[in-house]
Amino acid sequence: MASVGPSAASTQPALPSGPAVFKTIPYAFILPEILCGTWVWILVAATSVSLPLLQGWVMYVSLTSCLISLLLLLSYLLGFHRNSENWKVLDSLYHGATAILYMSAAVLQANATINSEFGTNVPLNYQLNCAASFFAFLTTFLYILHAFSIYYQ
Question: Residue limits of the MARVEL domain (predicted)?
C-alpha cells in the first residue's frame, strides 16, 4: 500500500532559484525572450514609424513584455517564489497571454514591413522592419515554448 505524505510532494520538481534558472527549461527561455524582445523594440524605434498605430502596438507589447519578463527573471534569481506551485500557474498564464499579444504584434509588424516597402528611405526602413518582424515572430515562438513546456515538466 502506497503512503501519501511528505514524500509524495517531493516528487514534483522544485522551482529554480539563483543561477539554476539559466540551466532549467522552461525558465532558461526568459533571458532569450528579453533579448529578442529588446531587439524588436530597438529595431522598430530605429525606423521612421510610418504607421504609428500598428508599430505603436508593437513597441508597447515588446517594451511591456521585456519589463515584466525582467521582473519575473529577477524574482526567480532572488528566490521570491519560495517554491510555491502558484508561481508555475502565474508563469504559465503570463507567458501564454504574452505569446498571444506578441503574435498580434508580430502580424502587425509584418504588415508594417509590407507597407514600408513603398515609403520614404525604402531600403533602410524595409530592412529594419524585416529584422523587427523576424525577431517579433522569434520572440512569439519563445513565449509559446515557455508557456507549453511548463506542462511537460
Answer: 21-153
